[in-house]
Amino acid sequence: MSLCALCGREARGFGYCHRLRWDRYPFYRFCSMRCLDAAAALAQRMHGMIDKTALEKQAIKDARRYFAEALTELGLMAPFYDRKAEEIDRLIEACIDGFQESMQRQATEKRVQEDELSDPLPF
Known about the structure:
There is one protein chain. The chain is globular and about 50 Å long. The chain is built from 3 helices and 2 strands, in the order ββααα. It has about 120 residues and is mainly α. The protein has helices at about 35-45, 55-75, 85-115, and strands spanning about 15, 25-30. Helix content is about 55%, strand content about 5%. It folds into 2 domains: about 1-50, no CATH class; about 50-123, no CATH class. α2 packs across α3 (about 85-115). It has a two-stranded antiparallel sheet.
């Protein structure tokens, strides 16, 4: 069961991807046209980004420590030391977006390959 990206109720077949750019933006599911329209308007104002949930915001904050540890281990901390938290969060979000985009693309490619290998329907 999918949940509505806006209100959290069960999603019922309504979906949105900013500017239909599947390669760049995530796909969101909604329970109604009302929630979809509200989210689409919000995404237009936010250039494709629907506000992060409290869990997502906390996860990005928590990732800062791991990011700093990796920078320190690689000897790269100096250029990042005086950066604002928002700038560090932007880097973390870029990594997350790239990771998710790759996973989605790979899953789609795998599905296409499996469909090509499967036997055609007999009717």
